[in-house]
Amino acid sequence: MRIIHISPSYKPSFIYGGPTISIAKLCEVLSKRCMVEVMTTTANGKTELPVSSHSPVIVDGVRVQYFNRITKDHTHFSPHLLWDLYKRLCNSKTKMIIHIHSWWNLVAILSCITAKITNTPVILSPRGMLTSYTFNNRNAIYKLLIHHIIGKFLITTCHVHATSDQEKQDVLKISSPKSINVIPNFITTPPAYSFKPFIPSIALPFKLIFLSRIEEKKGLELLFESLAKCAFPWQLTIAGMGEPTYIEKLKALSQSLKISASLIWAGYITNEEKHKVLSNHNLLVLFSYNENFANVVTESLLSGTPVAISMKVGLSDYIKANDLGWVSEMNQAAITSTLHEAFLDVKKRLRISKSAPSLIKAHFSEEQILNQYLQLYQNLL
Question: Are the C-beta atoms of 99 and 75 separated by less than 8 Å?
């Protein structure tokens, strides 16, 4: 089985947040059982990755070909990638599957057209890009035109992979794919070294952590406004990267709300540090307007740290069903109330801290998820 994964960006381009990690983890696990190649660009935000674009390289066991891009914005136009893909599909003597990650960029859309021309089956993982929120949030007119001119038709030729039931419903609201399957992301487990988990208690301040890409859809403004109304001492660690102008806007808001002294801007946290940092906080907070899966939720629980998330996060139903944290509606009063409840319920936090790691390992085992992906690919051959 030969699978070509196509993504506008790939590790070490961690500036794009969770999707980069999720795509790389998928390719690394798959490469142990089948032939996997990655075609991507040198995209790294407004700059380019310092990698060779002349020949494939091995990145953590995966064969990756980086291609230069002409546009340095979110269109990621790379003619060389598309031409190389076309030649591979035309000249291949074995059956191939194209697995495209993301949407609303020229790498994804034009690769999908190329696969259609060469009669190659396509799996599309939109990575949260096919939702009403994303559709209407940024460059809405551009997306609307693309969708009606070609995008809507292309999606009908694809087998869509969603990472949660919520993402599946979001996709079906705006498109009609050939088929749609829900398979969760692989989770990253703590490194081999051991560390002492943070024991939930009434010690002050209440230690909160936000660990994700810093962007508008993450609801940080709403979180700040909610925290400003909290009546207990708290401290929020903000770990992640984002556009400098947006981060400065958030810092200005925190000053106007008089909460800046309670914020710690930690910057980028590596995968090696992630679980240790999470375990040293009382609660992960993620009140996003839209999340297709949110790996950090499973990573936090695997570290023994409960979560407080919005109902718009893909894993919200799972959290409610297994009572692994708190799920809030998206308004200031509801979030403030949720944070107060999490602060006061020490008994529940202690139970989650003890039980969550084994539960996550059982529900999101690597072998179980791998078999679901392999079955999906096999069905297309």
Answer: no
CA-CA distances (angstroms) from residue 241 to 15, 49, 108, 203, 295? 6, 16, 24, 29, 16
- What letter would DSSP give residue 151? I
Selection from 310, 319, 266 nearest residue 288 by Cα: 310
CA dihedral for 30, 163, 173, 73, sign (positive or negative): negative
Q: Answer yes or no: are the C-beta atoms of 210 and 263 closer than 8 Å.
A: no
Specify which residues 39 forms β-bridges with. Answer: 6, 65
End-to-end CA distance of the chain: 8
Residue 340: both structure tokens together: 């107060």
CATH 3.40.50.2000 residue window(s) in the chain: 2-186+365-380, 206-363
3-class secondary structure, 12: coil
Residue appearing with tokens 């096919």: 130
pTM: 0.90
DSSP track, 21-76: HHHHHHHHHHTTTSEEEEEEE-EETTEE-S--SSS-EEETTEEEEEE--S--STT-
3-state SS class at 331: coil
Which residue is it, tokens 């940092």? 277
CATH of domain 2-186+365-380: 3.40.50.2000
- Which tokens in the block code for residue 358? 């084994």
Write down the pLDDT at residue 194: 47
CATH of domain 206-363: 3.40.50.2000
Q: Could you give the CA distance from residue 71 to residue 81 in angstroms, rounded to a whole number?
A: 13
Task: Indicate the DSSP class of residue 147.
Answer: I
Kindly indicate the confidence band of residue 198, based on its pLDDT and cuts at 50, 70 and 90.
low
Residues 248-284 have pLDDT tens digits of 999 999 999 999 999 999 999 888 788 889 999 999 9
Amino acid identity for residue 347 in this structure: K
Which residues are within 8 A (CB) of 271 and not within 5 positions of it... i.e. 6 or more apart?
21, 188
Q: What is the mean pLDDT of residues 74-98?
A: 92
Cα–Cα distance measured from residue 9 to residue 28, given in angstroms and rounded to the nearest whole number: 15
For the segment 202-227, what is each residue's pLDDT rounded down to a tens digit?
678 999 999 999 999 999 999 999 99
